[in-house]
What we know:
Elements: E1 2-3, E2 18-20, E3 30-33, E4 36-42, E5 45-47, E6 50-52, E7 68-69, E8 79-82, E9 86-87, E10 97-98, E11 111-113, E12 138-140, E13 142-144, E14 157-160, E15 165-169, E16 172-176, E17 189-193, E18 195-197, E19 201-204, E20 211-220, H1 226-232, E21 236-245, E22 275-276, E23 281-282, E24 310-311, E25 322-323, E26 392-394, E27 398-400
Antiparallel strand pairs: 1-7, 2-3, 3-4, 5-6, 8-19, 9-10, 11-12, 13-14, 14-18, 15-16, 15-17, 20-21, 22-23, 24-25, 26-27
Amino acid sequence: LNSLVTLATDSNVPCPTCNCATPPCQCGDTGTCSNNPLTSCTVGGLGPFGATSNDCQPTGPNVSGGGLNISFAPATTATRTFPSNTPCTGSGFTQYGCWIAGETQPSACLKGCNGGSNDSLECSVDGDCPGGIGPHPCQPLCRHDNTLDPGLAGADEGRCVLGPVDRTCAQAHQITCTQDADCIGTGPCTTEVRRCFMDPIVRTGVAGTNTLVLASTFPIPGTTSPAVNNTAGLPGPGAIRYPQALTIAYCGDGALNQSSEECDGAADANCPGACNNAACVCNVVCGNNAVDFGEQCDGAGQAQCGAGQTCIAPSMTNECTCTPAICGDGYKAPAEQCDPGAPPGTPADDNACPGTCQAALCTCPTAVCGDGVIAGAEVCELPAVGCGALQACAACTACLP
């Protein structure tokens, strides 16, 4: 995950939202960006801050340079274990282990005795913890709390035993608060002891053929802003459980679920009873005096073509299409990239660039890799628009792991 980090001014709306025409918004709905009503957007995600979209980019200063390069690899349905394996660098914390070079302290937990006669009591030095565990029993004290994630066995979540205590919005713990009024649509304002990572960090996935959970542990680098690093605890460790549902589409599954398919088994509305099930395309016969799927016309004297046009004969190049091509007739001729159609009764033939076919030109807009819009011959957009889980878009031409 290459994550760009920008500064925002409103903790209740840290990212611009995609305001759809008919709330409540759902993924796939269209609307306009809250920070620029002239920019159209498609809802790509729903969360406690509202509907968000890659079309609505934040305008605050970028504090991550080229982005925080966070590697989930390997994400697995097995178990990932991440022990602290490097000394912390913060003053008063160099005797403890951290997970990534440059990390100042293992957690924000207040120091307490780990074991011994003063177990769980506050401490300042190891001598305050007689009989404690390990060479440094006085430590930022983090203990297991399975109530944080009771649905997953071996969740291994932790909380600071002695604090600090945070006041946060119940539905968006990223937002601090002092009263319910501070949590607009994300309340109420609740009090909780801060969460922490156990050492080692353990995350276990769940295997499955249709549904599964991928797990990973990983280091997160710091930003270019010391203030952001201090607030977020960066650089530092991260962990994720990523639920997935697999949908496998293939020729022969009896459903039109790929752009290359014209028919598939009983899903043959385009050519009833005439599907080539080996290739999932319609058996088109130019010259049978019937306009089959994909044909514009068929047969001498047929009236499918407009004034001044003729139907190209069978066995000729571009057979069973009208010539010359007419932009706006709703049929994408071989010489056209798309056809926007024209009212009434002529729907667009614009699969190459849905909704953006240029009228009178019958061409798709010039694709610009990096503008966030999949256009023209692009199959995806940076960084991963149009790609699957754990994939990235490469040069707008392919989705790669």
